[in-house]
Amino acid sequence: MNKTLEEQRRQLPAYAVRQNILNCIQTSSTLILIGETGSGKSTQIPQFILESGMLNKGMVGITQPRRVAAITLSKRVSQEKMRQLGDVVGYAVRFENCTSENTKIKYMTEGILLREALNDRFLKKYQYIILDEAHERTVNTDVLFGIVKSIQKERSMFRMQELKIIIMSATMDVDHFSKYFNNCTVLYMPGRMHQVQVMHSKHRQDDYMFATLVTLFEIHRTAPLHHDVLVFLTGKDEIESMTSQIRNITRSHDLAGQPPLRAWPLHSALPAQRQLEAFQRSGENYRRVVVATNIAETSITLPGIKYVIDTGVVKTRKFDPITGLDSLKVTKISQAQAWQRTGRAGRESDGICYRTYTANEYDLFEKMTKPEILRCNLSSTILQLLALGINIETFDFMDKPPRDSIEVAFKQLKQLGAIKSVQNPQLTETGHRMSKFPIDPIYSKIIISSPKFECVNDILDLVAILSTENVYCEPNQNNRDQATAQHSKFQTRYGDHLTLLNIFTEYKKHNKSKQWCTEHFLNQKSLQYAFEVRQQLAEICDNVNVSSQADSPHHNVDQIRKCLITGLFNNVAELQQRDNHYIVMANRQRAMIHPSSVLSGYHANLNGFSSSSNGNGIISNMGNKLKDAHNQKANYVLFSEIVHTTQVYLRTATRIEPEWIQEVVPDCGYASRINNNQL
DNA sequence: GAGCACTGC
After folding, report:
1. Residue A300 shares a structural domain with residue A152
2. Contact assessment for residue A514 and residue A524, using Cβ atoms and an 8 Å cutoff
3. What are the Helicase C-terminal domain coordinates in residue numbering (predicted)?
4. Which of A596, A605, A342, A367 is nearest to A493 (CA)?
5. Who contacts A520 (Cβ-Cβ below 8 Å, separation ≥6)?
C-alpha cells in the first residue's frame, strides 16, 4: 500500500526534475514554477524541500485559493509521508486549524496567511512560502504577491532568516510575473498527463445552446457508452433549460440502439446532496452529461469525463467604481480559461474538447482572465492593507487597481469612520477594531455600532447569515408551492434582513436539526456555516470590547434596523410614486427591488406568525393597525447589494423609516433631502 | 419575475 504511494510519487512529472528544482530553490530567493494539472507540483515540491534538509528553521507554508484544495492536498501529502494529518503535514482554513508543533508543511487558504500577517509582521514562522494556483489571480493572491515580496526584502534588510518564495502556476503571463519578481528564475515542468484533442466549430454559431445540443447528440450517437460529457454554460437558468431540453429530446426521438442519456445540473445554488449526484455515477447503462457553470472549471473535479463542450462564455461580476454598481454579465472567457476547460476532458485518460466557437474567435479572446483586483470593490482589501501598516500609494501591486477604485474605497472607509481622512488614510480606533473582523467593513462597522442600539446578539446573527449564500433550497418543479409555503412562515413585512434573522433564530431553536431544514426547504450546509461564522464573530467581539451586556431582552426591530443604517447608509433608496421604481439616495441610481425579495410585491402571501414581535420568538408581521399602511410598497428601503443583471436590482432589502436617517447618520449628505420631502 | 465563483487565525 505505502509502496504503491511511493511508486506513484516517483511517476509524477515533478519527480523527474526534482534535483533541478532543488538546485534552483537553493540558488534563488524567488522561483516561478510552471506546471500543468497532474504534474504533482502542489504535493511534491513541499516534500522535496523537507526531504532535502533545506528546511532548518520554520515551516513551508503553501497557499490555495480554495478551502477544499488546502484540505485534500494536506491529506494526500500526510498519507505519502505516512504520518497522521496535523503532525508533520497539516492545514489551516477558516474555523479549522489542523496543525501542531511538529508541523513542517502547512497547507492553507490565502486568507489565512493574510490574517497571519496581521499578527506577525514578518511571517517569521515560515522559511518558505509557496503561492499555488497563482494564475488564478484572486484578490488575495495579488495582495500576497506584494506582501511576501516586501517581507522578503525587509527580512534581508534586518538580517533575519531569508524568506524563500515560490510562485506556482499553470499557464501564465511569464514575462509579467518574472519582471515583477525582479526577473527571477522560471522553471517549466513537463506537461499534462493525458492528451486532449481540441475541435473548433467551423462556422460562427449564433446560438451556443443549440450548437451544444447538436454537438452533444453527435457525441452520443458515436461515442462508446461510458464516455461521459461535461458542458459549460453560464448560469442556473441556462442549465435548467439545457437539462430539460436534453430530457425532452431523448424522450421524444427514437434513439433506438443507443444507451439512455442522463443529464445532471451542477451549480453552486444546488444543495450539497444534489451536487454529489452530478459527481457520482449511479448506474452502468447510460451516458452521463453534466451541465455546469464554471464551478466545474476549478472547484469541482468530475471523474470519468471524456468529452468537454465549451461554449466560450461565463458570467462575471464587475464593479464599477463610478456608479458603485456591481454588474453580473455574460462575457467571453479568456484563452487561459478555455484551456482550463479543455483540461477537464483529460483528467483520467485522453479526451476531446469541442468548442462551439471558431479558431478565429478563440484568437480574439483575451489571453489571460483579468485579475480580480482590477474589477472589484476594494474597501475590504484596503482596510486590511492599512491594518498591516501598508501605504497604498506606494504598495507594489503586480497590477495596480484603477485610481477610481482606490479613491472610492478610501471615501467609503472615511464615511464608515475607519480612517482619519481620505488625504491621510490612517486607521482610527474604530478602523483598527473593524479590521479584526473577517468581513466587509460595512458589516464590521454595524457590529461595532450594535452595543449602542442594544442589539449585539441579533446583529451577530444577522451578519453571520448574510455572509452565506443560498439559504433557501432550490425546490423541484413539483414541490415549488410547498417550498414557498414553508419559506413564507419566516417572512415579515419589515423585509429580508429580519426574515433571514427569523430563519437563523428558528434554526438554532430547533437544535440545528437537519430534518427541520429539509422540511422547511432550507440549506443546512449554509445555516451551519452561518452558525460557525456567528461563533467566530462573537469571539472577535470579546477581543475588541463589543459587549452584549446592554442588549434588549427582546428583538427590537426598530433598533436592529437603525443599527443596520450605521453601515449601509449609502444603500438607502426612495420609492418614486410616479413609476414604482426606487432611486438610491446617495447617487440617484434608478433600481427595482429584486423579485426574490419579500418587499418585491411578488410575495403577497405573507403569513407570518399570528402575534406581533413576541419576545425572543419569531419576528412576525406588524399589528393590524399598521398592517394596511405596510401592505403598500415601502417608501424607503435599505439594501445589502445592488446588482445590474437584466435590470438594476436591489437585493436583500428592508423597510426603514425616513426620519431614522437624520437620527443615525445626520452627516450622510442626503438626510436633509429626505426631511424636506416628507409629509 | 429571478444570482458566476471563491475567501476570512
Report:
1. no
2. yes
3. 212-389
4. A605
5. A486, A487, A489
Give CA–CA dist A369/A137, Å, rounded.
8
List the single protein residue with the shortest CA to C1' distance from B2. Answer: A595
Residue-number span of the structural domain to which A310 is assigned? 196-370
pLDDT at A15: 85
- What's the confidence (pLDDT) of residue A481? 84
* Cell numbers given for A417: 469612520
Distance in angstroms (rounded) separating the CA atoms of residues A505 and A513:
12
Quick count: other Cβ atoms within 10 Å of Cβ A364?
A: 10
A171, A188, A205 - which closes a domain: A188
CA–CA distance, A30 with A184 (Å, rounded to integer) = 6
Q: A430 and A296 in one domain?
A: no
Is strand B in 7 Å reach of the CB of A73?
no
Same domain, A392 and A462: no
User: Which amino acid, A60?
Assistant: V
pLDDT of residue A303: 87
Task: Find the Å distance, CA of residue A510 to C1' of nucleotide B9.
Answer: 30
Q: Cβ–Cβ contacts within 10 Å for residue A95, how many? A: 11
Judge if A453 and A396 occupy the same domain: no
Q: Coil, strand, or helix at residue A3? A: helix
Q: Which residue has the cell 476531446?
A: A352
Domain end among A167, A188, A209: A188
Number of domains in chain A: 4
Q: Which three cell numbers stand for residue A49?
A: 524541500
Helix (H) or strand (E) holding A596: none
- The one-letter code for the residue type at A146 is G
pLDDT given for residue A251 in this prediction: 81
Quote the pLDDT of residue A611.
35
Same-domain pairing of A429 and A507: no
Q: Which of residues 570-609 of A touch strand B (CB under 7 A)?
A: 594-596, 600, 602
**Residues 164-223/A with CB < 7 A to strand B:** none
Q: Are residues A63 and A173 in the same domain?
A: yes
- Which chain B positions come under 7 Å from a protein C-beta? 1-9
Nearest C-alpha neighbor of A491 from the set A657, A268, A653: A653
Distance of A109 CA from B6 C1′ (whole Å): 11
Q: Which 258-317 positions of A have CB less than 7 A from strand B?
A: 267-269, 293-295, 299-300, 314-317
Task: Tell me A345's DSSP state.
Answer: T
Give the number of other Cβ atoms within 10 Å of residue A380's Cβ.
23
**A404 and A551 share a domain?**
no
pLDDT beneath 70, residues of chain A: 1-3, 172, 191-192, 254-257, 282, 604-617, 620-631, 675-679
C-alpha cell at A525: 450546509
Q: Is A605 helix (H, G, I), strand (E, B) or coil?
A: coil
Per-residue pLDDT, A631: 59
Quote the pLDDT of residue A617: 63
One-letter amino acid for residue A369 of the chain: T
Residue A255 CB lies within 7 Å of the nucleic strand B: no
